[in-house]
Amino acid sequence: MSISSEAARLKQPKRPFALAPIVKTQDSTQRSELVVIRGAGDIASGVAIRLVRCGYRVVLLEIAQPTAIRRSVAFAQAVFDGSAIVEDLTARLVATALEAIDLTWRDEIALLVDPQAGSLGTLGPDYLVDAILAKENLGTNKNMAPITIALGPGFTAGDDCDAVIETNRGHRLGRVILSGGAEPNTGIPGEIAGKSDLRVVRAPCAGVFRSCVALGDLVAQGAPLGQVGDTPVTVSLAGMVRGLLQDGLQVTARFKIGDIDPRGEKADYLTASDKAMAIGGGVLEAMLRLRKKATA
Question: How far apart are CA 260 and CA 213, in angstroms?
């Protein structure tokens, strides 16, 4: 489908929600349903991976300077590099909503810098997923798409959105909530190999962050990670550098700038996490359940 034909379609009155048809092209068969995801960090990227592999077209909306630290598995890196590959999928930075629409028909993920979601009128998504994970609602509402889904605390299903997905690790991770909200934010990082707070590296002060290690590096306890302004930053335990903030970003004191995986060389920093994929599965379930209800 060309940009011109898609633009003509978008000028038509907004249709009521209906099951989108299967669209057949010369080299693929896929659903025409479009999903807009607010955010492009590691969890949002896991959601995108699940949806694209199931035949959905995906557009990601990000801020101008993303602060994702798990950058090897976050499509947000495309904001800095122009494109980002996570597992076998590619996201590309585009300048306009029409470019984004065109790109999604070519089996790639489009990324727009659009924190206020001003492009929704042009994109006309079938689904909107709030994957910002800000622990509060930064402006998502049920009128943004025929079906809206939000991840984690800060949202009430039935009021802010149609469904909420549980993001807290544990028995309910990835569960679909159709009434009420997710568990409150604990403020405690998830435990890996018995370590929680120690694995997260935070800025000792405000300033510009510069690293001296790379993602995937193995570090010893007390090893340097980089510096914030002129203040050196060290790690609190040995392991693999699984998360690392983009160089050159301004941070505040206590801002998360790194993540050390205590499993060391056994850690996997190149594929989406179990948590991201579980949440992605929850989003997919919610989409199918809500679509079935809307078309019954």
Answer: 12
Q: What is the pLDDT along the chain (296 residues), one digit of tens a residue?
A: 444 444 444 443 343 444 454 444 444 444 589 999 999 999 999 999 999 999 999 999 999 999 999 999 999 999 999 999 999 999 999 999 999 999 999 989 999 999 999 999 999 999 999 999 999 999 999 999 999 999 999 999 999 999 999 999 899 999 999 999 999 876 666 656 555 568 899 999 999 999 999 999 999 999 999 999 999 999 989 999 999 999 999 999 999 999 999 999 999 999 999 999 999 999 999 999 999 988 87
What token pair was written down for 5? 């034909």
Q: Cα separation of 144 and 126, whole Å?
A: 9
User: In angstroms, rounded to a whole number, what is the distance separating the alpha carbons of residues 92 and 86?
Assistant: 12
CATH number of this structure's domain 3-18+33-185+275-295, picked from the four choices 1.10.1740, 3.90.550, 3.90.79, 3.40.50: 3.40.50
Structure pTM?
Answer: 0.87
CA distance 272 to 46: 6
The H-or-E segment that residue 223 falls in is none
Domain at 197-262, CATH class: mainly beta
* DSSP secondary structure letter of residue 242: E
Tokens (6 digits) for 222: 């007390």
Write the CA distances from 123 to 10, 90, 145, 217, 229, integer angstroms.
8, 20, 10, 40, 40
Token look-up 């160089």 returns 247
Q: Provide the 3-class DSSP secondary structure of residue 181.
A: coil
